[in-house]
Design goal:
By secondary structure, the chain is an alpha/beta fold. The protein has eleven helices and 14 strands. The strands form three sheets. It has a six-stranded mixed sheet with strand order 6-7-8-3-9-10, sandwiched between helices. The chain has a four-stranded antiparallel sheet with strand order 2-1-4-5, covered by helices on one side.
C-alpha cells in the first residue's frame, strides 16, 4: 500500500461502523470515529466499555468483524501494511520493556526496528523529552513504574510516528508520575502531534483531549469536547449523616427542584443535581434537619457522567 501525502483536513485514521465480536460476545458495536491531524482524541469509558478493543483495531493488532478502517481515506486490511505500521506509535497498557537492557538500549533496539536515521541522536532526544536522560544507562527493571511508563512513551516516539496511540497511559502509577506523564503529553500536543488516548478517567480526558468519544458496553454513547460532556451533568452533593436510611431525610432532599436522584450508602446520601440547578436550598434544608455531620459539593465522576448521558439519550 502506498501512503499518499496528507490532504488538508483529511482524517488520519477513521473507523466506519466497526464491530468486533469474540464468539457470541460483542466487544464493539458499530462504532464510528475519526481523528484529524494535530488532534488529541480520547476514548473514554469504564472497564469493559470497548476501549482496548478500539486500540487494538486502530493499531492493527486486531481485525474487525465488520466495518471499515481507513488510513488517510484509504481502506486498510489486516494486518496493516508495513508503510502504515511505521507511521503508528503504540504505548500499550503493559510496558513490555526488555528489563535487562538499559533505557537507552531499549530505545536503540526500537529505533533499529524502524530503521531510524541518526539513531543515537534520536534516542538522546526522546530520553530528554520524557525526562530520562540521567537514567539512560540504568536497566529498565530498576526504574519506577512511572519511569517505565515514560520509557514506553519514548519507545513509541523514537521513530517519530504520525499517530501516537496511548492505552490508559497512567494506569497503575502514582499521582506524581501521572502528572509527569500528563506534562509530556501536553508538550506533544503543543508540538502538533496527533494522539489517540484511551482512559478511565474523566479528569484525564478533560486535561489532555480536544475531543472525547464515550463508550459504554461497546457502544458509542456521546462525542464532543470534554467540557461539553461535563456541561450536560450537574453537581453531586454528598451528605454525611448518622442515619442514612432515614426515609424522612430522603424525602426531604428529593422534594427540591433540580434533584434528579438520591443514592443511599453507608455514610449517607449522594444527591445528583440537574445541570444548572442550585443545590444551596436543598443543602441548607438538609443541614437544618439534624443529624448531618457534613455536606460537600463535588463534580460528577466519569461513571456518573456516562450514566447521566446514557439516561438522557435513551429518554
Amino acid at each position: 500500500m502506498r501512503v499518499e501525502p496528507q490532504q488538508a483536513n483529511q482524517s488520519i485514521l477513521e473507523l466506519r461502523h466497526v464491530s468486533k465480536r469474540f464468539g457470541s460476545r460483542v466487544a464493539l458495536d458499530a462504532v464510528s470515529l475519526s481523528i484529524t491531524p494535530g488532534q488529541v482524541l480520547g476514548i473514554l469509558g469504564p472497564n469493559g466499555a470497548g476501549k482496548t478493543t478500539v486500540i487494538n483495531l486502530v493499531s492493527g493488532l486486531s481485525r474487525p468483524t465488520t466495518g471499515t478502517i481507513l488510513w488517510r481515506g484509504t481502506r486498510v486490511s489486516h494486518p496493516f501494511p508495513t508503510a502504515v505500521r511505521r507511521l503508528i506509535g503504540l504505548v500499550p497498557q503493559e510496558t513490555a520493556l526488555y528489563e535487562e537492557l538499559t533505557a537507552a538500549e531499549n530505545l536503540r533496539f526500537a529505533a533499529d526496528l524502524f530503521g531510524v536515521v541518526g539513531r543515537d541522536a534520536r534516542v538522546a532526544e526522546v530520553l530528554e523529552l520524557v525526562g530520562l536522560s540521567e537514567r539512560a544507562k540504568d536497566r529498565a527493571r530498576t526504574l519506577s513504574g512511572g519511569m517505565q511508563r515514560r520509557l514506553s512513551l519514548a519507545r513509541a516516539l523514537v521513530h517519530d510516528p504520525e499517530l501516537l496511540i496511548l492505552d490508559e497511559p497512567t494506569l497503575g502509577v502514582d499521582v506524581d508520575a501521572r502528572h509527569a506523564i500528563w506534562g509530556h503529553i501536553r508538550l506533544l500536543r503543543r508540538r502538533g502531534k496527533t494522539i489517540l488516548i484511551s482512559t478511565n478517567y474523566l479528569d484525564e480526558a478533560e486535561a489532555l483531549c480536544d475531543q472525547v468519544v464515550s463508550l459504554r458496553q461497546g457502544r458509542r454513547i456521546a462525542e464532543g469536547p470534554p467540557s461539553q460532556l461535563l456541561s450536560r451533568v450537574g453537581r453531586c452533593v454528598e451528605i454525611d449523616c448518622l442515619d442514612a436510611q432515614s426515609s424522612d431525610l430522603q424525602r426531604l432532599v428529593a422534594s427540591f427542584t433540580g434533584v434528579q436522584r438520591v443514592e443511599v450508602h453507608e455514610m449517607g446520601l449522594t444527591v445528583h443535581m440537574a445541570r444548572g440547578a442550585d443545590h444551596h436550598p436543598m443543602a441548607t434544608a438538609a443541614l437544618g434537619s439534624g443529624g448531618i455531620s457534613s455536606v460537600r459539593v463535588r463534580p460528577p465522576d466519569m461513571m456518573e457522567v456516562l450514566e447521566a448521558i446514557g439516561a438522557d439519550d435513551s429518554a
